[in-house]
Structures are given as C-alpha cells and as structure tokens.
Amino acid sequence: MKRIATLAVFSLAAVGSPAFADGSTTPPHAHDAATPHASAGPQLSIPAQAEPAVAAVERFSAALAAGQLDAAGAELDPNVLILESGGAERSAAEYLGGHAKGDAAFLQTAHIQLLRRTAQVSGDLAWVASESELHLSKDGKPVTVLSTETMLVQRSDAGWKIVHIHWSSRTKAPGDHH
Q1: The model scores a pTM over 0.90
Q2: How many structural domains does the chain have?
Q3: Which is more confidently placed, 172 or 38?
Q4: E strand residue ranges, 69-123
Q5: Would you say residue 27 lies in a domain?
C-alpha cells in the first residue's frame, strides 16, 4: 500500500486535471476557471505569469502517464531533486532510470481527479501545488488515495524546467477531505 500512496502523490499533478484523467490530450486552461464552483471541476488559482510553468508540469505529467519517459525527462532539469516517501532521487537520470518506470505503469491503472491547483511566480522561479484524488483497485477492492504535489519550476534559456518535486499521499479514510 505504501507504493500505491507514493505513486498517488505523483499522479496528482502529473495527470491530475480532468482533461488528462479522461484520456484527452488537451491541458486545462487555468484562466478559464480561476474560481470554479465545486461541481464545475478543480479549483484553480493560477496567475497568467505562472501559466508557462504550469504547462511544463502538465507536459511532464502527461508524458509520464503515457509512458513517454524521454518526453517527461525533457521537462526536468538534469539536477532535479525528487523527494517522496522519505526517499530522494537527485537527478533526472536517476529518476528516469528507475522509479519513473514504476510511476508510469501505476498511472495507467488509476483515475486521477485534480481537486485544486495553485501557482505563483517570483522572478525566474515558480511553484505549482496540486491536490488530487486517485481512484484505483487494490486486490479487487476500490481504493482512493489523497495526493499532494509541489513542483518548483525554474525559467532558463531552455524554457521552464522542473528543479524540485515533492510528492506525498495517503489512503483516504471515510470522512477524509483534502
């Protein structure tokens, strides 16, 4: 179950938007729903200047969910630091050469529902925080995992690159909310 929770964390930003969760390749447009109603979809708070950083996060997540590790890696800074479940991967090569394969396989078995996403930019750095629910089956039983993700994205001559990821998740108990 720990591995499910670990992967769930990643999935929230990775393919957390309803557009990605239902198989569409069209990323959501934050400016279309800055404060949507709860039933209208995820709650987004993304200023215009943060949209390019959010787009890098969405490209990374969509590529990973599709098993396209080269495309996912193109969104990572070579020295990215990834923290999850008490562990660390200290480069894009380390992540892509190991853990990413399991994350990609897991994402193909889960339905991801993005609940909230917020982002801010300060100079050449942006942070993107996402909260999601992952719906999957474990031993033939439905399981919901609450997942949170924070990504730091840095602007460079090569565009916006992800320099840090932190994933956290836990199995949802009855009555739990994000």
Answers
A1: no
A2: 1
A3: 172
A4: 76-84, 87-89, 111-122
A5: no
